[in-house]
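Thread: alpha-D-galactopyranose complex, take 2
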Amino acid sequence: MMKSGMGFLPPMGWNSWNTFTWDINEDLVKNIADIIAEKGYKDVGYEYIVIDDCWSLRERDAHGCLVADPAKFPSGMKALADYIHSKGLKFGMYSCAGTHTCAGFPGSFEHEFSDAAQLAEWEVDYLKYDYCFKPRNMDGELLYRRMSLALKNCGRDILFSACNWGADGVHDWIRSSGAHMYRSTGDIQDNWGSIKNIAISQIEKSAYTGNYCHNDMDMLVVGMFGGSNNDFIGKIGGCTHTEYKTHFSLWCLMGSPLMIGCDLRKADEETEKILKNPRLIEINQDAEARGCYRVKPEPQWFQTNEVFILVKVLQNGELAVGFFNLSDDRREISLQFWDLGISYASGRKLSFYDCWEDKDFGTYQERLAVTVDAHDCLILRGKLV
Ligand code: GLA
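Output below.
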């Protein structure tokens, strides 16, 4: 895996929000860091441990500084950063472009440069930056530019994770603001409908993702099984293993950052297999970080936006090809190789490898038709031969 510079590839890690929301503390975060470091997650690329909203006191101190809640983080943020760094991992925190965070804690509006300095002092490596309580008529683009500049000048490498939920045409201006990733949708929920809607809503935005500024389709719900303490996220709670596998596959092919959101202390074997699939992660972490294109399956009369093929061109000339059936019925999905730029006259074939089954899938010329169960997918890596 070639990495070059902060944010070059889609960031990977864990974030506290999906499962724990306000109920966070330093023991939990350390526990998760231990699991990431010791149970093979770090080996496949997960590195950022991110504390989301609800970590601070309700008020800044007399000097205008943010204060970590001593009941939740009695040792303080620098000590927690040291612990996470000692595991060879990186530490992420959260603030907001508005006056308050979404949960009503102090935001960084008009405190951008001093808060960035504070984060650098704590040795933070990543900042998620939300969009609640933005004063009306304040320009959001300007606020992301501000914090980006503050971070780039705070004396420490801090990855900037913008989170304005896809508002204000963010994909048009976020890359030039300096952010390394940007949330492109509203909050994910731990249910199939939410996964499906997010994925479909971003297919046409594929051209905007790329090295140093990745389309963040929100934290993963893989392995949550309805386990959030937040009613909104957990609503109609939980998915099947198949649905989580499809969710992970979509996020991998579409180049989204991979931030785990489940309680890793309770992850079952199947969840671990999904989150640590090295072949899927390799596709997500391909050095060129190209967005994928969609092929609508033939025949023409069979058009639904819930059944499609996503193709990601990889650095070495191979193709990641995902057959996705987000519909509620089993479907045959056929791919004509001319849609990939392979003419019959070229005589070239595609030799496929099945990234979930971890085995050869055979060599095909001109076309491949597969049958995919409802909510399932087939992810192949194709090599021209
Ligand atoms: C917003 C964000 C979420 C999370 C919460 C915290 O809703 O989109 O990802 O950070 O705020 O309050």
